[in-house]
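Methods — Computational structure assignment.
A single polypeptide chain was analysed. Its primary sequence is given first, followed by the predicted tertiary structure written as structure tokens.
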Amino acid sequence: MKTKLLFLSLSFFFLISSAQNVLLYIGTYTNGNSEGIYKMQFDLKTGTLSELQLAIATENPSFIAYSPNKKFVYAVSESLGGSVSAFKIRENGLLQFLNKVSSNGEGPCHISLNKQGNKAVVSNYRGGSAAIYSINRDGKLNEATQVFNYNSAENVSHAHSAQFFRDEIYIADLGTNKVYQYKLKNNNYELATPSIFKTTENLGPRHFAITKNGLYTYVINEYGGSITSIKKTDSGFEQVDYDSTLEASFEGKNSCADIHLSKNELYIYGSNRGENSIAVFKRNKYDGTIEKIQTMPVHGDWPRNFTLDPSGKFLLVANQKSNNISVFSIDAATGKLTFLHDVKAPTPVCLLF
């Protein structure tokens, strides 16, 4: 009887332990000590990262994305020629290569999928293009169905990120200082708005976050060190706010990188490469404006990408040049960050829960 009780107790312990841990995949640059995509265990209760392991060897997987059912991972290969690959997630969390297709442009730097998991969009930084792909049920990528080229005699494009929202796609072009809006029509995406905001400055829109209802979009500007807040209206789009991500006393060079909304959409976080910080903003849900409330040092160098964990209680930062991942707790009442600890990881540039 005692043996049976001990067995049941141990089984319960392991069930609780496994439920408390989730997988974190890490995209990297492989021109240093990294070999590809890595995985770690993240403790949802303590915020602890452990068990760093190579999930699959692949070249420069600088941005990675899940399928909605979390059976597959997709990665751009930011290398000569440019490609995007599909991987199946095995039971042990390691990745199995499925197939690879051209990214249709040099320097692919971002990939995202729609909610149905049957389409992907890839942004090509050096190529100045974005490509749309259909995805098979087995997770494999087909060749691109549409390619948008933005280079012209007047402008050098650097497409940097794209997101699906319902039947639309938004694409941020850091080179031409635009965020394009496309709408699905007859199974193809057609340009609906040349840019959802207008500027005469060289802001360099890089990444953006869209509220769940699609009413507000927040664009982080790499060159401008700022966030542009945009409201969707019946007649188009309207800029409602513009805020610096930097401390007034900061005098060095800075390149903004990533931006995320909190789970409750009350706070916005943006990363500064140079100041090496996360800028924290409180968001007004009624008019979409934001107010800076904290500048948190990242305890590392060059925070290219960061993410919030599935519980919304932690924020993790990938510090590219210092080869570490920093973990912060998020105060539920204020949205502010507190540094907890960091772990070493080879050239981390993308974090995926």
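Note: Residues 5-17 have pLDDT under 50 and may be disordered.
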